[in-house]
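Translate sequence into structure tokens.
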Amino acid sequence: MRTDALWSAADAALHIARPDQSDDKYTRGVLGVVTGSIQYPGAAVLGVEAALRTGVGMVRYVGPERAQDLVLQRRPEAVPSPGRVQAWLIGSGMDFANRDDDAAERIAYALGQNVPFVLDGGALDLATRAPGPAVITPHYRELARLLDEPVERIAADPQRWAADAAQRYGLTVLIKGHTTYVTDGATTVSVASAPAWLATAGAGDALGGILGALVATHSDKVLENPQLLVGLAATASFVHGTAARRASAGGPFTILDLCAHVPAVIAELIGGDPAISDLT
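Result follows.
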């Protein structure tokens, strides 16, 4: 396995798609989102918010009515209907052990499209079922559950266990933590741009939205070369952590605060602003 250096602002900048004057909302990328539940409807709001602020042409939200209502109240530009997409984000705010029939039907619909997939906590059981290239985004407990290993073993060596999961399931793994590791089993990178204040509810939902947007805007390239998911996932983590640091300014913050900083972080990355280079 090759372990690369810490993911940098320059690395991240290479993994952000810039629209040009010929683009429209479809060519800029459409992200399908199956997230949220009756118990955790806010996860859908945070993921859609983060995705739209990262930069896609459209987000299609397909979820329970309560979550859909909250999504549309916050982001009326979201489209609450299924349709053709360039990538799917599935699982935030869901539990695969308690999946109801409606959620299973929505997931089955998404799995019918050969596009890249971002699979969060409530969709980790789909690791071997995604028809297109996939990246999973577990924290230590979720990865322990997927691999049937003690949490303590995962926490003691997350890089090793992330690589084990990537090789076992043939996908890319982003394991969340103070230092995030991203690996496809052959290449591993680390990201450490986040403040400790980011350990708060909803952080992973926003990360999923950011990553989903980046994957949707690079869908064709990912289908040609799934290894690109390593860089896209590392970039999502970098943007997420940098936006969190900006939102924090040394103190606590909310996840919507984090989302509000995402556009400026991306603008500075693609503009080559040296102000964020000291985070790498």
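Note: The chain has one domain: 2-272+275-279.
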